From TrEMBL:
Family annotation (InterPro entries): ATPase_dyneun-rel_AAA, CbbQ/NirQ/NorQ/GpvN, CbbQ_C, P-loop_NTPase
Keywords per UniProt: ATP-binding, Nucleotide-binding
Chain ranges of the ATPase dynein-related AAA domain: 39-173
Name of this chain's protein: CbbQ/NirQ/NorQ/GpvN family protein
SUPFAM superfamilies assigned to the protein according to its UniProt record, in alphabetical order: P-loop containing nucleoside triphosphate hydrolases (SSF52540)
Family in the record: Belongs to the CbbQ/NirQ/NorQ/GpvN family.
Domain CbbQ/NirQ/NorQ C-terminal positions: 186-268
Organism domain of life: Bacteria
Length: 272
């Protein structure tokens, strides 16, 4: 299948719960959605922690997690399953969405607007009071057990006329707006994830804020928390800060030489 899928074991012990630092009431909202069998939509920029949050919550709730990275070629069959030839026989193979429904797991569709339009049609019966998944090719009608939850995400900054969720789809989900953490919280996250002392993370977070202010001018997207962690990890590993900043906070943002020079100048001014 063409879907990029990862699975996380059920019943993950507390020590294996991925680190996540809440910045609001997102943990409580997710738990309420899970208990009440409601689907959840996460909105936010690239690298702000949406995927980590879902992994954290799946482990916290002790549920198996199927993550699907959506793309232009992702079809409904990639999610639900298809007949394949095995040893001369034709056998049905469940897709990640079908496996999640059968097992009572959490299915997370990352950047769902990138998938083809027929994908949202498949999701509709799972996002209302029916909570069913019709499999036309096998004639099955799977009822989602209480432990099943559907979570989807997308980056509103990349939406256009051709790629976006229709109102009829959006209004089937609870929605949670993700942004970058406040500076103090982001500093703690970067330090925790990279091992770089907190006081050395402070200027990196300050620089990220300055670069994010340029979004919509010379940049399509600002520095993500993910890139901040990469930068701090390089510095903690012994790389000179100037090299780490260029590799993790400048080069990923643009291919234009003049834009990169301007970003480097912003870095020099911000860091003194």
């Amino acid at each position: 299948m063409s879907a990029a899928v990862s699975g996380q074991a059920a019943g993950t012990p507390p020590a294996a719960v991925p680190f996540y630092a809440p910045v609001g009431d997102e943990v409580a909202l997710f738990e309420h959605a899970f208990r009440n069998r409601l689907p959840l939509l996460l909105k936010g920029p690239t690298g702000c922690g949406k995927t980590r949050f879902v992994a954290h919550m799946a482990a916290r709730l002790g549920r198996r997690l199927y993550t699907v990275a959506c793309h232009d070629d992702l079809t409904a069959a990639d999610l639900t399953g298809r007949y394949l030839l095995k040893g001369g026989d034709t056998v049905w193979v469940d897709g990640p969405l079908t496996r999640a429904v059968r097992e009572g797991a959490i299915c997370y569709l990352d950047e769902v607007v990138e998938a083809r339009k027929d994908v949202t049609v498949v999701l509709h019966p799972l996002t209302d009071d029916r909570r069913v998944l019709p499999l036309e090719r096998t004639g099955e009608l799977l009822e989602a057990p209480p432990g099943f939850m559907l979570v989807v995400s997308y980056n509103p900054g990349y939406q256009n006329v051709l790629k976006g969720l229709k109102p009829s789809t959006r209004q089937r989900f609870l929605a949670l707006d993700f942004g970058f953490p406040p500076p103090d919280a982001e500093t703690a996250i970067v330090s925790q994830e990279s091992g770089l002392p907190r006081d050395r993370c402070v200027p990196l977070v300050r620089l990220a804020g300055a670069l994010r202010d340029l979004k919509g001018q010379d940049l399509e997207e600002g520095v993500s928390t993910r890139l901040l962690v990469y930068c701090a990890t390089l510095i903690a590993g012994g790389m000179k800060p100037a090299q780490a900043i260029r590799a993790a906070m400048i080069e990923p943002l643009s291919d234009e030489p003049d834009v990169k020079q301007a970003l480097l100048r912003v870095a020099e001014i911000t860091l003194g």
